Amino acid sequence: MKVIEKAAAKINLGLDTPFRHPDGMPEWNMVMTSIDLADYVAVTDRPETTIEVLSNTGFLPNDHRNLAYQAAVLLQTTYHVNRGALIEIDKHIPVAAGLGGGSSDAAAVLRALNHLWHLGLSLAELARLGLKVDSDVPYCVYGKTAHVTGRGENVAVLNPPLKPSWLVLAKPHVSVSTPNILRQIDYATLAHPNIDQVLEGVAQDDFALLDKHMGNALEKVSMTRYPEIHQIKERMRHYGADHAVMSGTGPTVFALFRQQSRAHRVYNSIRGFCSEAYLVRSL
Ligand code: ATP
Fold first, then answer.
1. What is the C-alpha separation between 216 and 18, in angstroms, rounded?
2. Interface pTM, i.e. ipTM
3. Which atom of ligand 1 is nearest the CA belonging to 67?
4. What is the pLDDT of residues 202-243, one digit of tens each?
5. Distance, first Cα to last Cα, the chain
6. How far apart are CA 107 and CA 118, in angstroms?
7. Whether residue 130 has its Cβ less than 6 Å from ligand 1
8. Contact 13, 195 (CB under 8 A)
9. Which of 44, 50, 73, 85 is the most core-located residue (most Cβ within 10 A)?
10. Any idea which residues are catalytic in this one (predicted)?
11. CB of 247 shorter than 6 A to ligand 1
C-alpha cells in the first residue's frame, strides 16, 4: 500500500535563542508556521525490511544521511517493525535554505509509516521520536502555527493560528550549513526579538503588531558570513515590503502580506533581482 504525504516548508515568524545548553545545542524560543511550498513524499510499505529512498534531485543523499531515511529507520527499530518501505521524495523546497525541507520530509515519513505499519502512535509520540532526527521535526509533525521551545520538543500549537496571509520568499544563491551557524553564535552580542509580541500579534490577529515584531536573533550571525542575505532584505524593503526577515539560519528571507496585490508587486520586482523567489500562501 502507498500513501502520499504533503511535507510543507516552515518559516520562523520569530526566532530567538536565550542560551546554549551544556551539550552545545541552543535553547529555542520560536514562532513557526507552515507555507504552501511543499515536497510530496510517497511512501510504499514493503514486506522485506529494507528502507530505500529515491528523489527527483541528483544532489540529495539517498542513504543514511537523508533525514527521511533516518526517520524511517528510527521508527522501524524503536517499534521492532518487521517490514520496510520505499520512500519517493518529490522535492520542491529548496535545500539548506532555512525552510526545514529535510525535517518536513522526515515528519511526513513518520506520519505515513505510522499509518502503513498500523502503529497507532499519537502526533505527540511521533514528535518525541522525531526530535532524535532534527530539532525542527517535532514542529513539522504538526505543521500548524506553533510556539516552539526547548530543543524543539515543546510544540504548543497556537489557537487561533496565523490568519491567511501571503508571503514573498527570496533565497540568495548560497547554501547555509545550520550546524556552522549554530557554532558561531556569540550569546553576548545577540539581538533578541520580542517573541511575546509576535505571539500576541498572532493571538489578536494584529497584523501590524506581528509584522513589526517579526525577527530572527541569528540574522546577524548568518549575514556576517553571507552579505547576500542583507542585500535581499534591503531589496525586499526597497520594493515595498514593510519588513523582511530571515527564516531559520537562512539564507531565505521572507516578507508577510495580508493583501495579495501588494505581495504580487513585491514578488514581481524581487524576481528580477533574485532567481529563486516564491509567492506563496500560509497554510
Ligand atoms: P535546518 O532544518 O537544519 O535548518 P534547512 O531547512 O536549512 O535545515 P534542509 O533543506 O533541511 O535545510 O537541508 C539541510 C541539510 O540536510 C542539507 O545538507 C541536506 O543535504 C540534508 N538533508 C538530508 N535529508 C534531506 C531531505 N530529505 N531534504 C533536504 N535536505 C536533506
1. 12
2. 0.95
3. 24
4. 999 999 999 999 999 999 999 999 999 999 999 999 999 999
5. 28
6. 16
7. no
8. no
9. 85
10. 10, 136
11. no
